[in-house]
Amino acid sequence: MNPRSKVLAPVAGAALVIALVLCLVPADASLMAQEQQAVTAVSAGWAGPSPFRQLDLPAPSALRTGSGRPGPDYWQQRVDYTIRATLDVTTHVLEGSERIRYVNNSPDRLAFLWLQLDGNVCGPESVANLIQLPPLVFGDGVFDFTCSGNGVRVRRVASAGRPLSFKIYDTTMRIDLPTPIESGAGLEFEIDWSWEIPDQGFARMGRDGTLYQVAAWYPRLMVYDDLSGWNIEPFIGPGEFYLEYGDFDVELTVPASYLVTATGELLNPEDVLTSEQRSRLARARSSATPVAVVTAEEARANAARGRSGTRTWHFRAEGVRDFAFAAAPDFRWDATSWDGILIQTFYRPEALSWEEAIRMSHQTIRYYSERLARYPYPHATTVEGPIGGMEYPMITFVPSSELREDLYFVLTHEFGHEWFPMMVGSNERVHVWMDEGFNTFMNIGAVKDYFAGEPYADTVVTHLHNLHARHSVPGKEQPISLPPAEQADLFWTAYQKPTFMMHLLRTEVLGEERFDRAFAEYVAAWDGKHPSPADFFRMMEDGTGMDLDWFWRGWIYSTSRLDQAISEVSEEADGSAIHIRNLGEMMMPAELRITYAGGSSETVRLPVEMWYQGPEFVYRARGRVTAVELDPRGVYPDDDRENNRWPGSRGAE
Predict the structure, then answer these.
(1) Do 485 and 597 have their domain in common?
(2) pLDDT digits over 415-446, tens only?
(3) Which of 445, 464, 449, 562 has its CA nearest to residue 515?
(4) pLDDT higher than 50, residue 2
(5) What pLDDT digit, counting tens, does each position of 86-106 carry?
(6) Which one in 324, 355, 571, 653 has a CA-CA gap of 20 to 30 Å to 70?
(7) What's the whole-number mean pLDDT along residues 203-213?
(8) Is the domain of 273 the same as that of 415?
(9) What is residue 235's DSSP assignment?
(10) Shared domain check, 191 and 107
(11) Around Cβ 275, how many Cβ atoms within 10 Å?
C-alpha cells in the first residue's frame, strides 16, 4: 500500500491503546482527543480501536483539497510527441524517430528525465523474464505476461543538435540534462530507436500473421507528480501504464496494401483510402446504423492482390496519454455514429461473430456516456486480433469469440477503460483497483442493458458471490490496496473484489441516485488529471454526505470478513428484542425480514451506524416475533449464513 495513504495500524487490545496514549506527553489538546477516542472505543464495546476511526490520509492542501478535488495550485506535466515510424513486415521491425516537447509545470527544477522503454520487458535479461511471473487467469482465459524477443534499441538522444547522456535500466531510461529544466520552462529533444515487434507482447500487443496490434512501442515519459516525484515503478507485466497527457502527431509508413487504424484522427484520407471508402466513411459519420466501409469480399481481395511500395498514414490526437495502432491487409471495416462520435470495428473476414461488434460498440459508448461523462474523443475503435483484451486512447484490442456474451463483455470492458484510466488518469502501476475495479463495476450495468430480457443479464451479480466463495480465502487473500505486481490473485483483487465493493456501496450503502451523482462528479473533476485514492475517498464522501472511512478500511486496506448473526430474540412488554452480532471484522449495514405472530412480515434495513456502540445491536420490533432472517436477499458476502435465521439457525457462536 502507498505509504501516503496508509491506514492506522490496528492495535491488539484496548488496554494497550490506552496505555500508549497516557504515556505520551505533553497532554495537549490533540493527544487528549486521541485518548478520548481510545477510551470511547473501549467503553462502546470494541476490543480495540474503533472500526469507524478516520483513515490516516495526506493533509489537504491547495494542490488537492479536503473535498477531494484538484486545488487552485494543482499542476501536472505536459508531454507532446511528434513520431515518424516505418513498419517492415518482413523483419517485423519498427524503426522510429520522435521529437518530444516536455513542459515542466511543477515547482521543481528537473536535472534529469525518466522514460519508459516497455518493449525491453521482452529482452532475455529483463526482470520480467528472470522472475517469470505466473500468468493472470480469467476463467478459461490466460494473460501471459512473459515476452520473448529483443528489447528497444536506442540509437540517439539529442537536443538542439547536441547529444544527451542517457542510461537504460531494464524498462526505464534516465536522460541527464546539461541544464536543469526550470519550473514553467520546457525542453525539446529527439530519440531515434528501433524495436522488433514480438508475436505476443506481455499480453498488451503483438502480431498474428499479417495482423499487427502495436502498443507501448515508443519511448514515453514517466509521470512526475506532486505525490511521488518521478513514478519509477518498473514494468514487469501485471501493472499497466501511468502516463502524462499531451498531443500526438504520428506518421506511420506501412506496405501499400495495409489498412491502418489508430489513436487520433486520420489527416490524409485522400492519400490512403479509395474514393468509395471515403464516401462510405462520410456516410457512417451521420448514420446510426452500421455502414460497411470495407466489406468482407473487398478485404479478401485486397489481401490477395497486394500492392508494391508503401503508404504513409498521418494521425493527430489532442489531449491523450498514449498512442496505439493496428494494421493488416485484410481488415473488414464497419462504422456508425452516436452523438457525433464515429464508432468503428476492424476485423478479419473469418471473425464472423464480429459482425455484431459494431452494434455492441454503439451501445457501449452510448451507455457509458449517459452515465459517467460524454465520450471525449472523435472516434471509438475496436480491433479484433490475438490480444486477449487491451485498451488505449480511442482504440481497443479485443479477441474473437464464438460466444456473443464473451465477446460483448471483453469489448465493453475495454471500451470502459476510455473513462478509467484514459480520462481519469490514475496510477495503474500502484492502484490497479481504481482502474480495473471501477471499470469492471461499470460493466455490470452495460451487460444488463445490452442483454436485457436474456438470462445472461441476471448472472453478472450472482457471479460475484460465486467468485467471492472461491477467491476470498482466509490466510491467502491479499488487500486490494497492494500494487498489482505483488498480487497473487490479480483476477480477484484487481477486478472482481473491487467490483463487488463498488456494487454494494451503490446498492446497499448509499443508494443508486446518491452514488451515481457523486461518482459522476469524481469523473468530471479528475478528467485528464491524476487522482489518488485519497482524492476518490474524499470526493465520494463530499458528494454523498457520508463518512465512508469504515468502508474503505474494510474493503481496500484489509481482508476483513463479514459475518452478521442473530444471537437471540426475546419478548418484551411492548414487543420483541432482536439481538444481532457482528462476528467478523467488516462493517456493513444489515437487512432483516421479520415475521410476526399472525403471519404478517416486514423488511427493515438498518444503517451501518448500528455498530457505533460495538459489535452487538438490539433491534426492538413492535409485536411478537416468530421468525427473523438476516440478509434475506442474499446480497452480502456473509461468511456463515447458517447463523442468519431465528429460529432454526445455529445462532451466534
Answers:
(1) no
(2) 999 999 999 999 999 999 999 999 999 999 99
(3) 445
(4) no
(5) 999 999 999 999 999 999 999
(6) 324
(7) 93
(8) yes
(9) -
(10) yes
(11) 9
Strand partners, 638: 562
pLDDT at 127: 84
Rounded to whole angstroms, the Cα distance separating 445 from 500 reads 13
Domain end residue (candidates: 220, 244, 268): 244
Alpha-helical regions (H) of 353-480 = 357-371, 404-416, 436-450, 459-471
- Under 8 Å between Cβ of 70 and 60: no
What are residue 562's DSSP bridge partners? Answer: 638
Instruction: Give the HSE-up count for residue 120: Cα atoms under 13 Å, Cβ half-sphere.
Output: 20
How high is the pLDDT of residue 216?
A: 94
Peptide bond connecting 421 to the previous residue in cis, omega within 30 degrees of 0: yes
Whether residue 143 is found in the same domain as residue 20: no
Specify if 49 maps to a domain. Answer: no
Q: Cell digits for 130?
A: 528472470
Give the CB-side neighbour count of residue 261, counting CA atoms within 13 A: 30
Both 367 and 452 in one domain: the answer is no
Please compute the mean of the pLDDT values over residues 208-212 and round it to a whole number.
96
**What is the enclosing helix (H) or strand (E) of 300?**
helix 296-305
Query: Do 205 and 300 share a structural domain?
Result: no
In a domain, 419, yes or no: yes
Helix or strand (DSSP H, E) at 282: helix 275-284
Identify the band that residue 149 occupies on the pLDDT scale cut at 50, 70 and 90: confident
| Residue 390 β-bridge partners | 397
Structural domain of 547: 447-555
Q: Does residue 557 or residue 145 have the better pLDDT? A: 557
382-415 pLDDT, tens digit per residue, is: 999 999 899 999 999 999 999 999 999 999 999 9
- CATH number for the domain spanning 106: value is 2.60.40
Q: Checking DSSP bridges between strand 395-398 and strand 379-384, what pairing results, if any?
A: parallel
What CATH number has the domain bearing residue 602? 2.60.40.10
Q: Is residue 407 part of a domain?
A: yes
Cα separations in angstroms, 204 against 145, 378, 399, 563: 8, 23, 12, 40
User: Grid cell 470511547 — which residue?
Assistant: 40
Where does a domain end: 182, 215, 244? 244
Q: How many domains does the chain have?
A: 5
Give the residue from 80, 354, 66, 349 showing the smallest Cα distance to 190: 80
515 and 542 both lie in a single domain = yes
Report phi then psi at 294, rounded to 5: -130, 120
Question: Do 216 and 94 contact (CB within 8 A), yes or no?
Answer: no
> What does 146-214 look like in DSSP terms, one character per residue?
---S---EEEEEEETTEE-EEEEETTEEEEEEEEEEPTT-EEEEEEEEEEEPPSEETTTEEEETTEEEE
Question: Computed from CA positions of residues 497, 498, 500, 504, in that sequence, does the dihedral angle turn out positive or negative?
Answer: positive
Q: Are residues 542 and 579 in the same domain?
A: no
pLDDT beyond 70 at 649: no
- Say if 260 falls within a structural domain: yes
